[in-house]
Amino acid sequence: MVVSRTVSRKLLIAAGASLATVGLLAGCAAGTPTDTGTETGGGESTGGNDETGDTVVIGFSGPAADHGWLGAINSAAIAEAAKYPDIELKVAEGTNDANLQISQVETFVNEGVDAIVLLPTDGAALTEAAIAAMEAGVPVVNVDREFSSPFAARTTILGDNYGMGVSAGTYICEQLGDNPDAVIAEIAGIDSLPLTQDRTQGFNDALADCGLSVSNRVAADFTVAGGEAVTSQLLSAAPQIDAIWNHDDDQGIGVLAAIAAAGRDEFFMVGGAGSANAMREIQSGESVLQATVIYPSTQAADGIRLARLIAQGKVMSDLVEAAVPARIVLYAPVVTAENVEEFLPTAFES
């Protein structure tokens, strides 16, 4: 069943805010049941969600692909939609212009799409446009950068920025926790962004748990040039370092260049995001880069899958409360030489 354009604002708002109410919307139709399917309050648990159903039109608006991770977000979403013959995907031009993205959302609504997957260039700026889409009966799947209102999305899917910091800090604690005088450095992204603040907070909290703290901190701008420049400053200011956490593997290319130019190798480094080039550095065993923390570039691809389920009135098969959740936060695992082969095939290129 395709979600009707006449679904009321009240129902869609409730769907985004309460899993119990979500069951009334998403549970109205299920995929082909398996022999072990069981009835639940949220619908029927099924194993047939991948079977072709009614064709649904999904609008996708993402960022400009000016960063390896962002490019991977877009390409993964398009590739995921191509796997399903019952998805017609409308892709808006990637943009960092909030006003242009607002107009893209409005166009999707006017064209009568069945769902929208949106990674907003600015969550707050896109909130009203997303609310308007929801009011028009078009469910919105919010990816990565959150809207400022719970009424703006049926489902939100996020990477775990705080969890990235926790994972990085925990790994460093495992390596250096018996050295209370260890010198820890941090190379952040853009400090004004909540995601950077969350990563730093998680990192500090994890280090504090084993009695360590950050001694030297700089912030770059998620670019190669920015990473190289601030790392040069950091290395000049800190003659001895035991470990570095760099928030982003794209800027990490510049970070590693600065480290090589300085001839420093007395420390190990942990990266962030999980790029393929970072994983190859880890795999080589010849780099200061010893680990990286995943920030999944599959978020929009997952958003496409969830939008399909919602628009077709299907439910999730692996939950007792089978309705598509209102909020999903993806795990932030640590990749090391021991498990890099597991993660490398799906890593993005910087």
From TrEMBL:
<feature type="region of interest" description="Disordered">
    <location>
        <begin position="33"/>
        <end position="53"/>
    </location>
</feature>
<dbReference type="Pfam" id="PF13407">
    <property type="entry name" value="Peripla_BP_4"/>
</dbReference>
<feature type="signal peptide">
    <location>
        <begin position="1"/>
        <end position="26"/>
    </location>
</feature>
<protein>
    <submittedName>
        <fullName>Ribose transport system substrate-binding protein</fullName>
    </submittedName>
</protein>
<dbReference type="InterPro" id="IPR025997">
    <property type="entry name" value="SBP_2_dom"/>
</dbReference>
<feature type="domain" description="Periplasmic binding protein">
    <location>
        <begin position="58"/>
        <end position="314"/>
    </location>
</feature>
<comment type="similarity">
    <text>Belongs to the bacterial solute-binding protein 2 family.</text>
</comment>
<dbReference type="InterPro" id="IPR028082">
    <property type="entry name" value="Peripla_BP_I"/>
</dbReference>
<keyword id="KW-0732">Signal</keyword>
